[in-house]
Amino acid sequence: MASHISKLLFAVSSALFMQAGAYASADLILLNGKVFTANADEPQVSALAIKDGKILAVGGNEQMEAMGGERTMRIDLAGKRVMPGLVDAHAHVVFGGLQLISTSLEDEELPVKELEFYVVELLDQGDALQGDIIFVQGMHSSYWSQIAELNRVFNSGRWTQRPIVFLGSDFHTAWINQPMRRRAGIDAHYVESLASDQKHTIGVGVDGMPNGLVIDAGWDRVSRAMPKLPGEVLETAAVQAVRHLNSLGITAWMDPAANAAPGEGLFAIAAESDKVGVLPAYKALAERGELTAHVAALLVAPPKGTPQDLDALAAVQKQFAGVANLSFPGIKIFADGVLEYPAQSAAMLHAYHGKEDAGHLLIDPRSFGDLVSAADERGWIVHIHAIGDRAVRESLNGIAKARSDRQSRVPHSITHIHVANPADFKRFKELNVAAVMQLLWATADHYTVDLIQPYIDPDAYRYQYPARSLLQAGAEIAGASDWPISPPNPWEAIHQAISRAGPLGVLNEAERMPREQLFYAYTRNAARAAGLEAVTGTLEIGKSADFIILDRDVFSIEADEIADTRVLSTFFAGSEVYAP
After folding, report:
1. CB 3.0–4.6 Å: which of 154, 252, 366, 445 could bond 177 by disulfide?
2. 335-513 under CATH 3.20.20.140, yes or no
3. pLDDT for 527-553, tens place per residue?
4. Fold entry, domain 2-79+543-578
């Protein structure tokens, strides 16, 4: 009954909107196209009408043409495919922009000696310097299995006085040489001072001395010892990032750590809740009219925080309230770390092979539900980083507490879901939890095979990125990139989610995703997960006129061609913001 009433009210409001719009001609009409609306009630139409930056109407050519006038601009699509502007439900966009303008190895695996030649070349060119620190990001996790060689090469000769930081492409791990360890205060005394649940954050050798590997909170300590980037650099990065995402057809995203900035540390930021991170950069772009996307900014909250800790985050939200195209739908919480060897900080249900522990849960299961429920009571989304199957389960348990306290329908979500236990699949639908997944990672490669398979139980290994299983259990899948941890191109990710093929074979063929469901994942579903459903994600009357025109019909071409899709035009709020 409630559903029938809501549909009736929507129909009435839509009719009134059209009636009001009829007194003035449409600004823009698109005709003769193949338009995917992402609205399940009317998914495919041929034409659109736009007025004042919003969707005036969708339907057939004749119906839309009747809304035109002498000053109406018309685009003959000539059969081209149109979709809503795509939504990335988890992307650190300003950090991604920094990667565009900075030095990154982009996961290339060079022998350590060749890596030294590469660093020498960077130094000679004056690149890769942050202050006097050599800083290279995008390091493949395989380097952390070569720490003895890294120490031998980069703690001798010309490097004995030069601080070096190699940041992993996962942004959770890094390696630093001895001069940088001294600067960050990472020595045997510091390791001895760490609480038992923090000792894993600093790698040590057989001699008990720090070996340069830092994980999660260990990386935070290093990042705080590096020079802060000036605001104008962050603004430049933001400009480049927005342009890049617009070129890929992305017109909205969830930034899951907007109160963190380079040098502040993703894990430490929650303890200093007055931090504003990259929000000033977004504000500066908005004031210049360059924020051509909807940004749902989440603030990182302490994993073991209390309901009272949310007050400080609310104050940050208030500080940036009213910034155009910037919203604050909720908070982000880290439940664990990463799965790959040797870091293995993801919380698993069973111990890693060859170790006595099963990773490290950052949240406290005894109190986590109270924190989630307190955020839910405020109407805030809780978006949880969970990699291991135990972290996924405990995240669901925390959300279950909020659902038992009230049926708010706030769209909470769990992101990454590297591995999950089948017993938990159905709980996503039961608890109305979106699965925000980076399916570009669903490939059989060095990461998912060599650095994981030998170390976890076969049943857990089987369910890496279990997108199809979650879908069949009724979960809503939302598309995301986690840029700059991986490239933000959604077309490559969609292709990967369909094929799951990689250099080492196919990563569980049974988890391949249906094509059309992925188009919903990067439009309607991602918008819902980001708290932007009322604004964008579908081409419906009254929503922002965010849409893209493609060079091919992604619904009918061979799946292998999807990765090469190019955007011919991106419109945001009715204005073209990208054309090649």
Report:
1. 154
2. yes
3. 999 999 999 999 999 999 999 999 999
4. Urease, subunit C; domain 1 (2.30.40)
